[in-house]
Design brief:
Layout (H helix, E strand, L loop, with lengths): L7 H9 L49 E5 L2 E8 L1 E2 L10 E3 L52 E5 L6 E2 L6 E4 L4 E4 L8 E9 L10 E3 L2 E6 L3 E2 L3 E4 L2 E6 L3 E2 L3 E3 L3 E2 L45 E7 L6 E7 L4 E6 L5 E3 L14 E5 L5 E9 L2 E4 L31 E3 L2 E2 L42 E2 L2 E2 L11 E7 L10 E8 L4 E6 L11 E5 L8 E13 L9 E4 L5 E2 L11 E7 L5 E8 L10 E2 L10 E5 L2 E5 L43 E3 L3 E6 L2 E6 L5
Parallel strand pairs: 10-13, 11-14, 12-15, 13-16, 14-17, 29-31, 38-40
Antiparallel strand pairs: 1-2, 2-9, 3-4, 4-8, 5-6, 5-9, 7-8, 18-19, 19-20, 20-21, 22-23, 23-24, 25-26, 27-28, 29-33, 30-31, 30-32, 32-33, 33-37, 34-35, 34-36, 36-37, 39-40, 41-42, 42-43
Length: 697
């Protein structure tokens, strides 16, 4: 049933007499006059052909209570409507589309408010496929239509859909919403809709034609509105065509200048020069084609004026050499544009780009991982300036001698550095510090570092990014574990790679001797499978996760390359790794000092001859060493008691001054022996038995 505040016949009658209809609360004479039937030129749309019929702009905006415009269309997104406060028969049944929105208490219906919005676009302007589509993407996110979308909301941020379940009438001409036979929402009503904001007949005069053909127009054609037709053909224009808003024709040939002060919509424009003075140029197609007419010219592209100098600059394609270049009217200025990799290849992350011979960018052999730069090949240079860091894979020959111009630090200068002779001097500050032929060309440990930025290890030279200072000891290794090793993984030595002569590593583990005894240290960087890098064996490991630890915690080897603060219990192997220095999630630090510990048989004064059959052996001092045995030689004093059910004693002496049992049923242990002055007591068969002690004759 219709609501008591809505009457369809009354509404129809009032519209026929030019009155606005809002509610039966008001009489015919109380309603405002409207122009629904009697329409002026300012209410007749003259740019309806510019209203999109498909692919409507906007179907959502970043926030509610906002608008956006494009061309002749304005989009109102979740706009708060204003209730009519005189609907007493059924409250909240009539709502007005006002800008600015009225208060929650509403406005009266008798007068049309100054901010009343009208001229909303209804679904008849869209293609048939969009007839049932609403203006808000909450209803149909794939596309938008011209049906008004209604919502209710108590706070203006959380919305409940009212369309299409609610029964209502919305007057697209006057912007009045009336609920007819549905439960009125208790909260405020919001609407999303499209509004026409284009020209009307009162703004301009239009000219429509099927065809205009003229050979010569020798005077000006002044049209104050819109030219719409199927064909406009002028072989020669003497004068101008001006002062119109839109020229629409299937074929418009103008021999002179065409000046457009408004919008220019065209599927094809053929002219030697086209000037566009607008600040915003929109192309609805996805491709702009230049140099499209044969014969094609060598250079094609875009030309721009420089705002500072006024010179003309260009972005052009050289179709002969197949590259883009930037040029300017300044003499001698032309630069090629280097392009990225082709569609079949991608740049490798972490590798520096390289300009390829085909004028494109590809990946080089130089890799950067944080502060570590790796070159997958040879480095050739006539000279170096500053600190030089390398790995054992560097092959320096006598032809690559570094001269005094190569200063490692302010007080260190190398002379004929790699000549492998007594002339190898690390510094000229003192003769005692000069390295002679008795020293290896490369320092064998961090002890022979030249400066803190030039820390040489047994693998030749470490990188400054992997060592905190010269005291750090690092080893260049290869990951042979078959898996990626994150930074801070505990590893062990398993052998040497024959092709590179580099130590190979795998995960350390405390489960047995073979996986723990040769623990080497922590990975000082992340390792890919079969990749090379550094392991820190002693010093400060930086940039690791120590969250959850306490500064000073002792660290022990755990399973699969991990570490723990809990000391392992035999048979697990207790390998001490170092101590926590700084506690931090990503930038913690650990002082590394590997102590594999020692088993009993590994002590220098212990001879271990045990086997699986040696359980129960005693460790007995024999000369300068301890050895295992089941035999005791000599005299021993036992304090306490022996307890056992089997076995035998030879030359066993008892010294027992304990109290004698009071009777044969006193408690005792099987095989227990007690002595008194007159008797020897033996506990057997749950009774005490005694033997008198007689004098030895």
């Amino acid at each position: 049933m219709p609501l008591p505040g809505f009457d369809l016949l009354t509404k129809a009658a009032r519209l026929l007499i030019g009155r606005r209809y809002t509610s039966t609360d008001l009489s015919d004479s109380q309603e405002s006059f409207t122009s629904t039937i009697q329409m002026g030129s300012n209410e007749i749309w003259s740019q309806t052909k510019l209203i999109p019929t498909s692919s409507l702009p906007f179907y959502t905006l970043p926030s509610a209570k906002t608008t956006s415009s494009l061309g002749v269309v304005k989009y109102w997104y979740k706009w708060p409507l204003t209730v009519a406060n005189n609907t007493t028969l059924t409250a909240s049944s009539v709502w007005f589309f006002l800008n600015p929105s009225g208060s929650n208490s509403g406005v009266g219906s008798q007068l049309i408010q100054a901010g009343q919005q009208a001229n909303f676009i209804n679904p008849k302007y869209s293609e048939v496929a969009l007839t049932n589509y609403y203006a808000d993407g909450d209803y149909n996110p794939e596309s938008a239509g011209y049906n008004i979308a209604l919502f209710s909301s108590a706070n203006g941020s959380t919305f409940t859909q009212l369309s299409p379940s609610a029964t209502y009438q919305f007057d697209y001409k006057t912007g009045v919403l009336e609920f007819t036979s549905t439960t009125i929402p208790a909260d405020r009503v919001y609407a999303t809709a499209y509004q026409y904001i284009g020209k009307t007949l009162s703004d301009v005069n239009d000219v429509e034609f099927n065809s205009i053909t003229a050979s010569v127009i020798s005077s000006s054609v002044i049209i104050g509105g819109q030219i719409t037709g199927s064909s406009l053909s002028v072989s020669q224009m003497v004068g101008s065509i001006g002062d119109f808003d839109q020229l629409t024709a299937s074929n418009a040939l103008i021999k002179n200048n065409l000046w457009v002060n408004g919008n220019l919509y065209a599927s094809t424009i053929s002219s030697s020069i086209v000037y566009i003075t607008s600040s915003h140029f929109i192309v609805t197609d996805n491709i702009i084609t230049v140099n499209a007419l044969s014969p094609y010219v060598r250079y094609a592209g875009i030309e721009m004026y420089d705002s500072g100098s006024g010179t003309l600059s260009s972005l052009l394609w050289d179709s002969q050499n197949n590259y883009f270049f930037v040029s300017s009217s300044d003499a001698g200025y032309a630069r090629q544009v280097i392009l990225g990799p082709d569609l079949q290849n991608s740049l490798t992350p972490g590798y520096l780009p390289l300009i390829h011979s085909s004028n494109s960018i590809t990946s080089s052999i130089i890799q950067q991982n944080e502060n570590l730069i790796t070159v997958a090949g040879r480095v050739s240079a006539s000279s170096f300036t500053g600190s030089l860091y390398g790995t054992s894979s560097w092959a320096l020959t006598s032809s690559v001698a570094l001269s005094s111009s190569y200063a490692l630090s302010g007080s260190y200068t190398l002379y004929s550095v790699f000549s492998n002779s007594s002339s190898y001097a690390s510094t000229s500050t003192s003769a005692s510090y000069a390295l002679t032929s008795s020293y290896a060309t490369y320092a064998s440990a961090a002890l022979y570092t030249i400066s803190s930025s030039y820390a040489l290890t047994s693998s030749y030279a470490s990188f400054s990014s992997v060592s905190q200072n010269a005291q750090d000891v690092l080893l260049y290794v290869k990951n042979d574990s078959g898996q990626v090793l994150p930074k801070g993984t505990v590893v062990r030595i398993v052998g040497v790679d024959n092709s590179s002569n580099v130590t190979i590593i795998q995960l350390a583990d405390y489960s047995n001797e073979s996986n723990s005894a040769n623990t080497l240290g922590f990975t000082n960087e992340s390792f890919n499978v079969n990749a090379f890098g550094y392991v820190i064996t002693e010093g400060t490991l930086l940039g690791v996760n120590t969250d959850g630890f306490t500064s000073g915690d002792l660290l022990y080897l755990s399973s699969s390359g991990t570490y723990t603060t809990t000391e392992p219990i035999a048979p697990k192997h207790g390998v001490r790794l170092g101590q926590v220095i700084r506690v931090q999630l990503n930038n913690g630090s650990i002082y590394v000092r590997i102590d594999n510990g020692a088993e009993l048989g590994e002590l220098h004064d212990v001879v271990d001859n045990t086997s699986n059959g040696s359980y129960g052996d005693l460790l007995i001092k024999s000369g300068s060493v301890w050895t295992n045995s089941k035999n005791l030689t000599g005299s021993y004093t036992v304090t306490g008691s022996f307890s056992g059910q089997t076995g035998s004693f030879i030359n066993f002496y008892i010294n027992n001054t304990g109290s004698a049992p009071s009777n044969s049923t006193d408690f005792g242990n099987k095989g227990e022996i007690r002595l008194s002055n007159n008797f020897i007591y033996i506990y057997a068969n749950q009774n005490w038995m005694r033997v008198p002690i007689a004098k030895w004759n």
